[in-house]
Each structure stands twice: as C-alpha cells, then as structure tokens.
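Handout, section B. The chain below has 461 residues.
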Amino acid sequence: MTDQKTARLVLGEALRTGGDFSELYMQDTESNNLSMVDGSVEEAAYSRIKGAGVRVLKGTKCAYAYTADTSEEALIATARAAAAAIDDVCEGTTTSFAVRDYKTAPKVAFSDIDNARRIALLKEGTAAAKAYSPEISQVTARYLDVDHKIMVCNSEGVWAEDRRPRTRVFVQAIASKDGEAQTGYVSPGLGMGFEAFEHINMTDVGREAAKTAVTMLHAPQCPAGTVPVVIDGGFGGVILHEACVHSLEATSVSKGNSEFCGKLGQKIASDIVNAVDDGTMPGEWGTINVDDEGTPAQRNLLIENGVLKSYLFDMLGARRMPHPLTGSSRRQSYRYAPTSRMTNTFFAPGNHDSEEMIATMGDGLFAAKMGGGSVNPLTGEFNFAVLEGYWVKNGKIYCPVRGATLIGKGAEVLLKIDRIGKEMWMGQGMCGSASGSIPTNVGQPRIRVESIVVGGKGGAL
C-alpha cells in the first residue's frame, strides 16, 4: 500500500508539533453487493474503497485526519493536518519497523466468481422461501462479499498487514393473509472467501426465513408480565453483546460511563456464567488476525464463573485508564479513528439440558429468535424485540406468540441466568459505535433467565 520510507516520513511529520505517538492506517477494500426481489435482480454493484488515516496522540489527546489520496504528498499533507491539532514544543520520535504480515488468501477469491454464481445463490434461497407456503407474498434476498485489506504502522515500530475476506447472505420472507403481514429473515455470514457456501445452504436459509414469517402470521399477541424466559442460542447472544459487553468496552469504561466501572474481580453474574470475546476463531464473521492498531487478536475471558475478569481495551482507552491491550481496536474504514470494539462475543457452553430448561420453567416465554433493540450502556437498561417466540404453559410449548419484547437491565439479567446449555452457536451482525459499523458475531447456547419483564399486547393464553 506504501513503502517503509514513505511511512517513516508520514509518521515523523505527524510528530513535529509535539505528539508522543503517530499512526498510519491504510485500506484497500473491494466488495460486491447484489439484491433480488421475488427472483428478479434489483441491483448489482461493485465498489472499491482506498484511503488512509493518520492519528496523533499526546497523552490522552487525539487528533485524526484522513484522505482518499494515498500518494506520498497526500499522506504527508494528511499527517500535517492531524499534527496541527497538537501544540507542543517537544517533537516525538519514531523507531524502525518490525514487520508482521498476517494476510491469508481465501480458498476461493471473490474476484474469481462471476455474478451468475452469486445470482444463483439468491435464486435458490428465494425459491425455497416461496415454496414453503402459499402465504409467502414476497421474498427479498441479498448477497454481500468484502475483501478487506489493511496496513497499520506506528512510531513505536509496529507494521502489521491483514486481509479479511467475508461474505454474507440475507433472505427476508413476508407472509400475508387477510390484510396482515409478518416477516422472517435469516442472514448467515462467515469470515472467508466464496468457499463459505460449502457451509451455507441457501435452501435451508430460505425455508427458515419463511417458517418464521408463516409461524408469526398465525400467532396471537404475546401476554405481558414478569416471567421466566428461555432464550435460544445464536443471535440470542445479542443480549450479552448489547446489554453487557458494550459496557465493558474502553469507550465507556475509561470515561466512567459504564455500570461495570471499577468492578474487575467482582461478581457481576450468576456462578454458571462465563463470557468470552474471541477474535481468533477461524473463519468466523467477526474474526480478525490483528486489530486496527496492529495488536494481534486474542481470546479475552470477560466473565469467569460470574466474576468480571477483563474489559476490552484499545491504546487510547489504556492511556485514560491503565489496562492491558486486548486486540480489540477496530474501525469501519480509514475515515474513522479506531476504538475498542467486540469481535466474536458469546456465553461459553454450560452443562444443562436444553429441553429440561423448558420443562421446569412453568409458564413463560421461549424466545427462539431475537430481533433488534436498544440499550443504554451507562445504566445497562435494554429493550429487545423477539422475532420468533413461543408461550410456555406448565413446562410445555403452548403456542407461538408475536409482538414480544424483553425489557430489563444487563447487570440484573446476568445474575438471574440459572441454566446454560451445552451447545453454543453464533449469529452475525453489524455493530455500530464511535468507529463506525463493523462485523461482529454474537452467540450463546440456549439459556434460561429466572425472570424478566416481557412486553406484549396479548391477554392470558
């Protein structure tokens, strides 16, 4: 992307006004995006994004500038723009680079695949959803692949390069009857090349999206109340992601804006809870080889037997509040300065039987699929939609219910988890924060929460 001579010039120029650390980040990303409605292609787009960002630190003061022009002259001008925000008399220094290349070529490069093969995948998913039921009135399908190449170097001698291919498909099915409509969607993704579709079956994806839509079309409204809730694995982990681990990121913790500030070594969850953020898992959607500051990715044990063991930290966060770097610095693109973010975040497997969780819960809700929601990281208060839910009576699934929401506080829910299943799986998503939108996995085995507020418009069932 650039040579070491130019990089040294850029880093040195960034330090001329008194910064004590400078960093150059460069990106070259190619992507393909296709969308289809009811079997007809609506859009097929290719894009390529190239650019660079220069960051200067002085203590806990940060300045960042970026450019789409990666010539030497433009990079030096960008360094001067970032340095202009720092005003000191002591010029920082740079050291020689220790180059580390983490790039791994995908088994099947996206550049070797023509759009006919991409379209065939979408058609397969669409046909499967349509065939599931005559009540499926519309199917939207989308394909995405990204080949993301980065280089980051800094005045302390780091030089790291990484290549991060990833691909994902989306199938959304709408079921309609008598003027009512319900939606189901499935969106698997993996951190690998086109070989991902050796693992993703588009017929299964389409059928699953249609099943959710049709099931919810015939479901009564969910009752409201405070009841036991069983949350299934995969995307059920969004509660851990949103209601807990965002509050463990340095973005919140180092500024005192987290309910978990000052609680390292303290009990914050049930004894059976172990939570992990792991950027090293091969082929996963949220996996990175090295973070966007050049720190190798690692497995971070966040909660062990209910005790808070670690936060997620980047360099600037560690300057504000002493804590080891955790390989968690991430950014959407060169237009963003990095900050602490998640990768693959999940509750570790437990030893409880999945069926026993429901059989012994009495009356309550089984949340088979979670939807979106919102959370306040300062208080941990959250509100999440249940995409596919079932009401449980006397320990048996009674009927599907729609319109359910889970309402609570992250710290309280962690303490109320009384069952964790044996098999963990993940769901894929895009997480937005101060450094833009990045791919993250959320996961868990099936879990049970002793009691949680369930919102709904239905009466007794």
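Note. The two ends are 62 Å apart (CA to CA). Compare this with the example in section A.
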